[in-house]
Structure formats: structure tokens, C-alpha cells
UniProtKB/TrEMBL annotation:
InterPro entries in UniProt: Adenylyl_cyclase_CyaB, CYTH-like_dom_sf, CYTH_domain
CYTH domain ranges (all copies): 1-173
Protein name, UniProt field: Uncharacterized protein LOC113395871
MF (Gene Ontology): pyrophosphatase activity
Gene that this polypeptide is encoded by: LOC113395871
Matches recorded under CDD domains: CYTH-like_AC_IV-like
Amino acid sequence: MRNVEIKAKVNDFDEICKIAEELSGAPPTIIHQNDTFYKVNTGRLKLRVYADESATLVRYDRDDEQGPKLSNYDLLEFSVNESAKIKTFDDIMKKCLGVRGNVIKERRLYMVDQTRIHIDKVDGLGKFMELEVVLRPEQTLEDGQAIAKDLQMKLGVKDIDLIDCAYVDLLDKN
């Protein structure tokens, strides 16, 4: 699977949420996430656990650069009734790979066509915006970049506020 992503620091949380809701035509879905990042040789690997105790294993790689960038990813879903399996899986991964870091956040999800707008409150970091343009098979990287850049402008996000890395990287820097 492929998407084009933009991530930026948010200066006016209420305003960007208002604009995102107008663009999506619906109120946000509030999602509480606890991401455990494992130590890996290439890319990133995280287990995202949700408040309902379901989880998603996410493997992804993307360049650390500002602006719209391509991300390739794979997902493995665990359902709510698999919470014991999730815990065992996490324990095994921690023993085998070690933990790189942990990111806890409250995410507001807005959908605009094929794009997920995330407005995040990240523990220990602050407030951020993330766009994920999920590319259709026939779409190019340039198509996704154009969609992301258009939404960035509509949301009032300035290039100076763009960040080039994952939240776990920012936590490492702190």
C-alpha cells in the first residue's frame, strides 16, 4: 500500500480543527492510540494499540524530508477479542527486537475524499497535523503530492511548520 504524507506542527489547534471539519463535512472521530516502536534495521515497525484494546501492526518506510513524501506500508489487524494475543505478540517483539520508543496521542480523524486528516495531541510533544493521501493503484506520487499540497494550503499550514520525521524521532531528539 502507498500513501503521500505531510506532517506539521500546529499553531492554532481550534482553527485547524474547524477548517478540517468544514472540509470533511463531518465531526471528527476521536481515537486514542498508544504506539510502541520496535528497533529495526530499516524503516519503522510499530504496534498501535487503541482504547478498545484492538491493535494494528504497521511496517512502513519513507524518506525523512519536509513536504509531501511517499510512504510504503503494510498492516496487520488484531481485533478487540484478541487482546491476550496482542499482549503476547508485543512481549515477544520487545524480547526479540527491543523498544525504540513509545508515542501516546489523541487523534482527531477527518476524512476528505481519499485523504485522512489527523489532528494530533501527542504526549510530551504538542499538537500536530498529518495528511495521509491514500494513493489509488493508478495514481502517481505526483498526483498524491498535488492533493496533499492543496489540502495543506486549505488548512492554512505553512511550509515553515512542516516536519520531516515521525513523532518517535521527535521524542528521541527531546
